[in-house]
Design a protein that fits this description.
The complex is a heterodimer of chains A (357) and B (358).
Chain A lengths: L2 H13 L8 H13 L3 E4 L5 E5 L10 E6 L12 E3 L2 E3 L8 H16 L6 E6 L7 H4 L10 E7 L4 E6 L1 E10 L3 E2 L10 H10 L3 E4 L2 E10 L5 E2 L2 E10 L2 H21 L3 E10 L2 E2 L5 H12 L5 E4 L5 H7 L3 E6 L2 E2 L7 E3 H18 L1
Parallel strand pairs in A: 3-6, 3-7, 7-18, 8-17
Antiparallel strand pairs in A: 1-2, 2-6, 4-5, 5-20, 8-16, 8-18, 9-14, 9-15, 10-13, 11-12, 12-14, 19-20
Helix pairs in contact in A: 1-3, 3-9, 5-6, 7-9
Chain B lengths: L2 H13 L8 H13 L3 E4 L5 E5 L10 E6 L12 E2 L3 E3 L8 H16 L6 E6 L8 H4 L9 E7 L4 E6 L1 E10 L3 E2 L10 H11 L3 E4 L2 E10 L5 E2 L2 E10 L2 H22 L2 E10 L2 E2 L5 H12 L5 E4 L5 H7 L3 E6 L2 E2 L7 E3 H18 L1
Parallel strand pairs in B: 3-6, 3-7, 7-18, 8-17
Antiparallel strand pairs in B: 1-2, 2-6, 4-5, 5-20, 8-16, 8-18, 9-14, 9-15, 10-13, 11-12, 12-14, 19-20
Chain lengths: 357, 358
């Protein structure tokens, strides 16, 4: 493993901006780079990149998927990485982009260093930061792997083996506008929205289930009865059936408030990702734990409450665990990558790739 | 009274854009125009225009004020008036600006055609359509009148003798942000606190002269974050000042209770407050208008209204002022129009008023 090359690649990647959804340029850049490394590449309709590498010093036929996402959150334009005392940060006006470009750099370094490997499919998804839209829309017929790893957590010791189903609810109440001094001529859309939110059960519902109203916006002027209110809510549960039931219950309450207050309501309920749970004895987990342990990491298997590209991979038949990339404070201007952790992760990835060969 | 001169004046006035707060060019135009009519003019610090016209064929030295606002709502740039047989409208892509330039045209025509009148003060305020309103900041030391008329209602029969107490305020709830899927226990939803409060408020019609409204709500910025902020724009108004204050107190208490219930904090800032006023029906300013209307065949409709106008500020500054119509309809929309017969009727009514005062 060449530590300098690892850090250089990383710095090069973060300098190419890829704020969601404007990540196509970076995907093209990566495609050229991966072709140079010997990959055959294909992009699906959404623009997700799949790079297929042949086996090396191995007769294994079944390929293994490795996945990262290409996009970053904002502010991600003009990122200038600063390497100092074993830490990499941005200059302070932007995020760093270690989420998820540290993972890309680590995979690339591990791939370059591994002395043997099975066939590998490296998958670079778009728009992960938009509720995993890229992997949600990916053409999985282009992927052969049955197991895989996504590099997209912060800590070096984590192995994500489960994640929830999430529903997004977009609700719009429509009343009748009027001057506030003539309430008889109007019907407020804010009132049913408020009553619905008051009736909803929000926050922690049970150990694996949550709900939230994240955004509300309505009305234009203080002296007008508001005729439009929009709100965005979500619910999630690691038990898929609970998530479905909760989303239906929330819809029912949003409708009820509309009926009780004589306004129209338009509700759009969208499933954002599907839950998954991998057994801790599954080979995909065991291989990762072994490779990590070899490099002095004490792995922790975890069911998390957020959505990942892994939700979509697992739903589409690729049993996929998610590993860390060695950074912290993601989605902030203080985002930091820890060079030593990046090195350790790269070493475990090398062992992982070689053990799968 | 010269009907075609009145129409031409009106059309000239609306062609000069004056979307609030960009109404200074129009004020300058009006200053020039009033000077040509023999007025001595002054601008106060806010930019409101006061023009003093000496008495004509009258020994009266008691000023009477006529007041209109110079600004318009949007879209008010490039207004091209279309004069039809009975009405004047815009070409359709802008407002007309009859609110309030019809009133100004009527005052100008009155000055030109009255055979006699007492000394008159013409006041053109800025920014009536937005806060801060010009009349709120008018330098009243420049004004000698003890009574006057604001021309800013719809029809020739309108005589407005009272306006409400209006309390406009913003309510800001502050909670604690947290990832809604990872650690909702750590969060406090500002939206939830706001919603709970709104659910408990008395809104809409509260009594025959009192209303309350939550006009705007805005909170949160991300589906998966427990929202830290929620902001509301709220008002309550009543023709009875005490009732308005009582309702405001009641609302404040509900907001505070809701914040407490959810562990959020709340701050309430009253942004604008108008205080109710009421002129007795037998006051001279009302009786003169009523009598002038009857002389011109119009049946007066004397009433208080629930909306605030420049007259609220003017009355509180010691000038007993009724609000009359200008002859416009569908104000604040691109369908706005004025009725030519009403422009004429109102010009005749205010001409009668000044002649009776002469």
């Amino acid at each position: 493993m060449n530590s300098q090359r690892l850090v250089d690649s990383f710095c090069e990647f973060v300098r190419i901006s890829s704020e969601t959804p404007n990540d196509k340029e970076f995907v093209s850049y990566m495609e050229k780079l991966l072709v140079k490394e010997g990959a055959k590449t294909v992009k699906d309709k959404f623009g997700n990149l799949i790079a297929k590498f042949p086996a090396l010093n191995s007769t294994k036929k079944g390929s293994i998927a490795f996945g990262c996402h290409a996009d970053t959150v904002k502010p991600g334009l003009g990122i200038e990485p600063v390497v100092k005392d074993g830490l990499i940060t941005s200059k302070g006006e932007t995020i760093l982009g270690a989420d998820d470009k540290a993972g890309i750099a680590e995979f690339l370094e591990a791939f370059r260093t591994a002395k043997k490997r099975p066939p590998i499919e490296f998958i670079l998804t778009r728009c992960e930061e938009m509720a995993t839209e890229g992997s949600f829309n990916m053409d999985y017929s282009l992927v052969d792997s049955k197991i895989g790893y996504i590099l997209d957590e912060e800590g070096i010791d984590i192995v994500v083996v489960g994640a929830p189903t999430k529903f997004a609810l977009y609700v719009e109440y429509s009343g009748v506008s009027a001057h506030a001094s003539e309430p008889e001529n109007g019907v407020s859309a804010i009132i049913p929205a408020a009553k619905a939110i008051t009736m909803l059960k929000l926050g922690r519902i049970d150990h694996e289930t949550t709900a939230n109203v994240g955004i509300i916006e309505g009305g234009q002027v203080v002296n007008g009865i508001p005729d439009k209110v929009k709100l965005v809510a979500e619910c999630r549960s690691c038990d898929h059936n609970k998530a479905v039931a909760l989303s239906k219950e929330m819809e029912r309450i949003f409708k009820l408030a509309a009926d009780e207050n004589n306004v129209k309501v338009d509700i759009k309920s969208e499933i954002k990702y599907y839950s998954f749970k991998i057994s801790e004895t599954h080979p995909v987990v065991k291989y990762a734990i072994d490779a990590m342990s070899k490099n002095g990491i004490k792995p922790i298997t975890e069911v998390i409450t957020g959505g990942l590209d892994a939700n979509n991979f697992n739903r589409n038949g690729i049993v996929t665990a998610t590993l860390g990339v060695g950074c912290r404070d993601i989605h902030t201007k203080e985002e930091t990558a820890v060079v030593k952790d990046m090195e350790t992760i790269t070493k475990s990835l090398i062992d992982l790739i070689e053990s799968l060969a | 009274m010269d009907k075609s001169r009145l129409i031409n004046t009106f059309c000239d006035l609306v062609r000069i854009p004056s979307e609030s707060p960009d109404d200074k060019e129009f004020i300058a135009y009006m200053e020039n125009l009033l000077q040509k009519e023999g007025a001595k003019t002054r601008l106060d610090d806010f930019g409101n225009l006061v023009g003093k016209i000496p008495a004509k064929n009258s020994s009266s030295n008691e000023y009477v004020m006529f007041c209109c606002h110079g600004d318009t709502v949007k879209p008010g740039i490039g207004i091209e008036p279309v004069v039809e047989e009975k009405i004047i409208r815009s070409k359709g892509d802008t407002i007309l600006g009859g609110d309030d330039k019809a009133g100004i045209a009527e005052i100008i025509e009155m000055l030109r055609s009255a055979k006699k009148h007492p000394p008159i003060e013409v006041v053109i305020t800025r920014c009536e359509e937005i806060a801060p309103a010009g009349a709120e900041f008018l330098d009243y030391s420049l004004i000698d009148s003890k009574m006057g008329y604001v021309l800013d209602m719809d029809t020739p029969s309108d005589v407005i003798t009272g306006g409400p107490t209006c309390i406009f305020y913003t309510v800001k709830f502050k909670g604690v942000p947290a990832h809604s899927g990872v650690s909702p226990e750590k969060g406090v939803s500002a939206i939830q606190a706001a919603a709970y409060a709104i659910s408990n408020l008395r809104l809409g019609r509260i009594d025959h002269e009192t209303t309350a409204n939550v006009g705007v709500i805005k909170g949160g910025h991300s589906m998966n974050i427990i929202p830290e902020d929620a902001e509301l724009a709220v008002e309550c108004r009543s023709l009875n000042n005490e009732t308005a204050l009582k309702v405001f107190d009641e609302m404040k208490e509900i907001f505070n209770k809701a914040a407490k219930k959810f562990g959020a904090t709340v701050s309430i800032d009253a942004t604008t407050a108008l205080e109710a006023y009421s002129i007795p029906k037998d006051a001279k300013v009302v009786q003169l208008a009523v009598s002038a209307m009857k002389k011109n065949g119009v049946t007066p409709d004397v009433k208080g209204i629930a909306g605030g106008t420049d007259a609220t500020h003017i009355n509180h500054n010691g000038i007993q002022t009724a609000v009359l119509g200008v002859g416009g309809r569908m104000m604040h929309s691109t369908e706005e129009y004025v009725i030519i017969d009403e422009l004429v009727a109102i010009t005749n009514i205010i001409t009668t008023i000044v002649e009776d005062l002469a």
